[in-house]
């Protein structure tokens, strides 16, 4: 583990990342020895730093990443980058110009069961995402909503849980972004008020005709195909959504989803 560019195993107990979740993170897949969507990850990190007013050298972050990658024995791995505002005294208020904390760690990628042609089963979580446009899109350290939602997923029956906003819009999975296929076109929630703008989501929107707009349960039910994605697992087709007190929704694993998976595999090396 690298901490501020030095191999170490601990950080200061007064770090604001521990005290307040005051920071950002990125999880980057290494496939066949190559980083997947590194530019997109660093771009999102840079945007998050601007929004949270964390002053950091992205070049230092890149140097940490390259140092870990150069010394790794894994050709298929995951690097987690954590950036906090650093150490301060008690209280929420911070003084500009503080020294941020950079944490970078690499580990072997442990593949989950391949969803294959049949897709994965999902469940609708009761935990909702709070509305906060100031934080929407960035990958900040405050993930308690996802932690609470993930504990609702019966691990032996379902692979992912879908989350809604306080205004009854479908937003994302606990660890993935959500896509529908309508009349041959991709649709994904706009994420103006909550949710994370994933790097794989960005990759797909730049390469396949699609749009962003509000997604209700009724709209999801009418979809021709559904899938979830992130930059670690690639694309998982969704074949069903279980909901408390309602009949499950089902979808086929269609041609648009399969084409998207092939595109991801070709350009990133992730099979999904």
Write up what this structure looks like.
With 272 residues, this protein is of the alpha+beta class. It is 25% helix and 31% strand. The strands form 2 sheets. Strands 7, 8, 9, 10, 11, 12, 13, 14 and 15 form a 9-stranded mixed β-sheet that branches. A 6-stranded antiparallel β-sheet has the order 2-1-6-5-3-4. A hairpin with a 2-residue loop joins strand 14 (234-243) and strand 15. It starts with a strand and ends with a helix. The model has no long low-confidence stretch (mean pLDDT 94).
Indicate the structural class.
alpha+beta
Biggest pleated sheet: 9 strands, mixed
* Percent of residues in β-strands: 25-35%
Rg from C-alpha positions? 19 Å
In the predicted model, the low-confidence regions spanning at least 5 consecutive residues are none
The secondary-structure element order is EEHEEHHEEEHEEEEHEHEEEH
Mean pLDDT: 94
How do you describe this structure in short?
The protein is an alpha+beta fold and 272 residues long. It has helices at 16-20, 38-52, 58-70, 144-150, 199-207, 217-222, 255-268, and strands spanning 2-3, 6-7, 23-31, 34-35, 77-84, 101-108, 120-129, 160-165, 170-173, 177-182, 185-188, 210-212, 225-230, 234-243, 246-250.
Spell out the key features of this protein.
single chain, 272 residues, alpha+beta, 9-stranded mixed beta sheet, 6-stranded antiparallel beta sheet, 7 helices, 25% helix, 31% strand, globular
Topology:
Layout: E1 2-3, E2 6-7, H1 16-20, E3 23-31, E4 34-35, H2 38-52, H3 58-70, E5 77-84, E6 101-108, E7 120-129, H4 144-150, E8 160-165, E9 170-173, E10 177-182, E11 185-188, H5 199-207, E12 210-212, H6 217-222, E13 225-230, E14 234-243, E15 246-250, H7 255-268
Parallel strand pairs: 7-8, 7-14, 11-12
Antiparallel strand pairs: 1-2, 1-6, 3-4, 3-5, 5-6, 8-9, 10-11, 10-13, 13-14, 14-15
